[in-house]
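Field log, afternoon session.

UNIT: design team B
ACTIVITY: writing a sequence onto a fixed backbone
BACKBONE:
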C-alpha cells in the first residue's frame, strides 16, 4: 500500500485495480438514500489549492464529506500566501492544526512531492495537479470511466485503444493517463501538433502521431485535452481556427471511432476549439459521467490512504 499519491506511476496494476474496485464499492454504498459513510469521522482533510479548480476541488470536498471527515478548504487567493508565505510555512501551519491528509494543487511541478518528502508534515499527501507534471486522480477517474464502458466495469483495459489529443506539452492529465493506462494494459496514442508534444515524448510508454484521423480510426476512446493558453508564452499554432481544423473533434471525426467508442474530456472544455458543442453534448460523450466518477474515485483514494480499509466490506454491505 502506498503512503501518498503523487504520481500515477506510483501505482502498480494491483494497487490501481484495488482503488478502482474500491471506488465501485463506494459508489454502490453511497447510492442509497443516505450518502454518508462514517469511515473518516474525526479525521481532517485539507484541500490546499494554489491554482484554480472547479471539478477537483469540489469533488475532493464532496468525497471527504461523504466519508464524514472534517474538511478545510484553503485557497491561495485570500490567504497569507499573497503576503509571501511559503509552502513550508503553510504546511507547518496545517500540521499544527491537526490535518491528517493534504490534497494539494500547485502551479509548480513537484510541489506535491516536495510536501510529501520534506518532513514538514506527517500528513498523507495527494497530488491534485502539480504544474505540467501529473494529475493522478484525474487519470484514475478516467480509467474508472473507461473500465465502466469498455470492460463491463470489472476487467482491465488490456488491448483497448485510447487516443489522447491536443496540448500534450502542458498536460498533467496526459502524463498521468499515459502512465496509468499503460499499467492497465491499454494501447495509448498521443496526437498533437509537433509544437505541443514535449521533448522526450518518444520515451513515453505510448505511440506518437500527428495524424488525428488515422489515430482515431477504430479506437475505443478519445480523450480531448484543453488548449492551455494560460501556460503558453509563445505562438504554438497559427490560429485557433487552424488548430480546430487539424486537431479538433467534430461529429465527422468522432464517427471514425469504434461503433461504441467514447469521448472523454477532463474539463474545463474550450467548446469550439478542441471539441465542438455537438460532440461534447452528444451520445458518445462521457464528460459529465467523468465528474460523477471523480467523487467516487477520490473517496476511494482517501479511504485507502487514510487507512480505512477493514471497515469497507461491512459498511458497503449494510
Ligand atoms: N479536470 C480538472 O482538473 O478540472 P479542474 O481544473 O476544474 O479541477
Amino acid at each position: 500500500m502506498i503512503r501518498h499519491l503523487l504520481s500515477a506511476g506510483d501505482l502498480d496494476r494491483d494497487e490501481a485495480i484495488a482503488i478502482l474496485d474500491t471506488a465501485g464499492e463506494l459508489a454502490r454504498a453511497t447510492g442509497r438514500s443516505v450518502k454518508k459513510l462514517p469511515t473518516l469521522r474525526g479525521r481532517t482533510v485539507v484541500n490546499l489549492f494554489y491554482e484554480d479548480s472547479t471539478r477537483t476541488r469540489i469533488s475532493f470536498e464532496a468525497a471527504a464529506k461523504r466519508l464524514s471527515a472534517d474538511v478545510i478548504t484553503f485557497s491561495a487567493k485570500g490567504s497569507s500566501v499573497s503576503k509571501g508565505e511559503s509552502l513550508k510555512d503553510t504546511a507547518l501551519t496545517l500540521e499544527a492544526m491537526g490535518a491528517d491528509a493534504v490534497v494539494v494543487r500547485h502551479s509548480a511541478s513537484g510541489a506535491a512531492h516536495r510536501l510529501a518528502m520534506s518532513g514538514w508534515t506527517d500528513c498523507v499527501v495527494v497530488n491534485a495537479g502539480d504544474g505540467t507534471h501529473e494529475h493522478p486522480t484525474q487519470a484514475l477517474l478516467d480509467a474508472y470511466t473507461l473500465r465502466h464502458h469498455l470492460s463491463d466495469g470489472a476487467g482491465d483495459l488490456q488491448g483497448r485503444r485510447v487516443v489522447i489529443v491536443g496540448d500534450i506539452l502542458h498536460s498533467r492529465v496526459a502524463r498521468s493517463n499515459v502512465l496509468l493506462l499503460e499499467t492497465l494494459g491499454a494501447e495509448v496514442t498521443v496526437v498533437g501538433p509537433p509544437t505541443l508534444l514535449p521533448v522526450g515524448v518518444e520515451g513515453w510508454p505510448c505511440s506518437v502521431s500527428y495524424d488525428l484521423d488515422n489515430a482515431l480510426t477504430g479506437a475505443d476512446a478519445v480523450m480531448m485535452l484543453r488548449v492551455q493558453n494560460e501556460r503558453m508564452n509563445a505562438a504554438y499554432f497559427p490560429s485557433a481556427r487552424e488548430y480546430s481544423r487539424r486537431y479538433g473533434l467534430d461529429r465527422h471525426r468522432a464517427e471514425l471511432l469504434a461503433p461504441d467508442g467514447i469521448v472523454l474530456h477532463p474539463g474545463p472544455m474550450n467548446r469550439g476549439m478542441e471539441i465542438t458543442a455537438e460532440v461534447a453534448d452528444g451520445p458518445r460523450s462521457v464528460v459529465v459521467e467523468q465528474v460523477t466518477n471523480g467523487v467516487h474515485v477520490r473517496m476511494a483514494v482517501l479511504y485507502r490512504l487514510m487507512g480505512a480499509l477493514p471497515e469497507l466490506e461491512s459498511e458497503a454491505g449494510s
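LOG NOTE: The beta strands are 44-49, 70-75, 101-106, 124-130, 161-165, 187-191, 207-209, 221-224, 262-264.
NEXT ACTIVITY: expression trials, pending approval
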